[in-house]
Input
Amino acid sequence: MPTLFEPDLSKPLHLPARDSWPATSHLFDTTSVWAVRAAIASGRPLLLRGEPGIGKSQLARAVAEHLDLPFLYHVVDERSERDDLLYTYDAVARLAEAQVSALAAKDDPRWRDKLAERNFIRPGVLWWAFNWNDAQQQAAHYKTHCRACKEPWKPDGWSPASARPCGPVVLVDEIDKADPSVPNGLLESLGNDGFMTAQLGEAVCMEAGAKPPLVVITTNEERELPAAFLRRCLVLQMRFPADAPAAERFLIEERARVFWPPSRVTDKVCREVVGHLLRDRETAQRDGLPRPGAAEFLDVIRVLQELHPGDETAQLAALEKVKDFALRKNLTESA
Output
């Protein structure tokens, strides 16, 4: 098993389907490889900045697959709170248990034990990343007394003391959607290699002999991140290419990363899609509107290969039918 991060840059890495993540492939590039190496060596989180669909989340998943490590992920939204990355306290389930136990108190001398707060705490991704064995025990408490608690996938034979360059890969997706307390709380836990559980008053610490996790954070730039947070991260800018030839090369390579093998949509069809997309990007930029990018490109390719797999003529005809509502989003009538 690899002990250094040295992926093959000449061919795509197959990523099997896991949980809600579909099977796909990923082709590493020199810049992202060095960014990951630097993050592992420094122990700092790696912040990935770029447009939706540019490959930020997939990079984290590909690193975990290449190093044969557990892949833990948490998607942030507007309701996310600071502790969600650490653990979730199910107060509603505890209240329901209290109501049931109150009715059965005479017949069940252990009713108070069922209301112990430990029974209603579900470990989050950082709990698993810091101390896998402790998280397993806590998950067992939660599962026994509350509801299902699925253990994250891990490779066969992996343990926290495995000879890998880092611990599990943790993806914190779309952190810009959260309140500033979420990134600040994340850095506090990473800096301390652990955290306190408020309900238990106990510390969760890095497991003895375990390596720190590699934390990969993504942002779509919807909200400005705290300056203190940025200073404590390594930052990889994943930019959409500025000139047309480079954009064409990037998107055709992106097609190969996501849809492997890529023969069901030819390079000629891809170039036609790219041409429409770049013209719409230029119009959107002129009007000060969000620009279509890699995400929209991949949507069109998916449509064409599903409707007319391997039929170039039919795909080109279909492109003329779908391009306006697949690519030209939020554009003015002057487009």
Remarks:
- The chain has twelve helices and eleven strands.
- The mean pLDDT is 85.
- The domain at 13-87+116-238 is CATH 3.40.50.300 (Rossmann fold).
- The radius of gyration is 23 Å.
